[in-house]
Amino acid sequence: MNKNAFRNMSYGVYVVTTWDNGRATGCTANSAMQITSDPATIAVSINHDNYTNKCIAESGRFALSILGENSDPGIIGAFGFFSGKDKDKFEGIGQTIKGCMPVVADACAYVVCEVIDKMETSSHTVFLGKVVDADVLQPDTPMTYAYYHNVIKGKSPKNAPTYLAEE
Ligand SMILES: Cc1cc2nc3c(=O)[nH]c(=O)nc-3n(C[C@H](O)[C@H](O)[C@H](O)COP(=O)(O)O)c2cc1C
Fold this sequence. Notes:
By secondary structure, the chain is mainly beta. The chain has a single domain (12-150), classed as Roll (Pnp Oxidase, Chain A). 13% of the residues lie in helices and 40% in strands. It has helices at 51-59, 74-80, 145-150; strands at 14-20, 23-29, 32-37, 40-47, 61-66, 95-98, 101-104, 109-120, 124-136. A hairpin with a 2-residue loop joins strand 6 (95-98) and strand 7 (101-104). The radius of gyration is 15 Å and the shape is globular. The two termini are 17 Å apart. It binds flavin mononucleotide (FMN). Flavin mononucleotide binds next to strand 2, strand 4, helix 1 and helix 2. Residues 13, 25, 27-31, 45-47, 50-52, 76, 79-85, 124, 148, 154, 156-157, 159-161 line the site of flavin mononucleotide.
């Protein structure tokens, strides 16, 4: 099997946020997709070992901050390479509250979801969320996962579903 074929799949770059007993937290994720339009639903795949997984399961809600090409790339690292268990993920990162959820201010759009179902895999939980709020924050070109790799020269850690060992 040539896993490089997976590199030909397209994704965006998001920060999936939620509440941890009143404290905002979250992680970087590329594995988000719209599943239905009416009612609008979105799915995200979050590793069992990510602190965000436990927090989404407990709060029953998550938000997607959709990063743009002009979003600070440092946001991806801050949310993607540390755990919210030991760190305040929003330290030094602008936050805004939308639909009662914490959202990254330096994003081009956001979507707020209420968890309506989930599916367990061997390593990740796929949360299915019903969209309860969404809006555009600023005009920008949404960042693709390919842009993150090819232009920003970013890497993905093991907990990303799209991780390739040769990275
Ligand atoms: C570009 C990128 C994409 C990622 N995509 C995902 C993803 O879709 N699902 C996931 O579970 N982790 C993904 N990760 C890894 C998590 O962001 C990372 O494990 C994070 O440290 C988890 O933080 P937490 O423990 O606070 O939840 C990604 C990381 C990066 C940098």
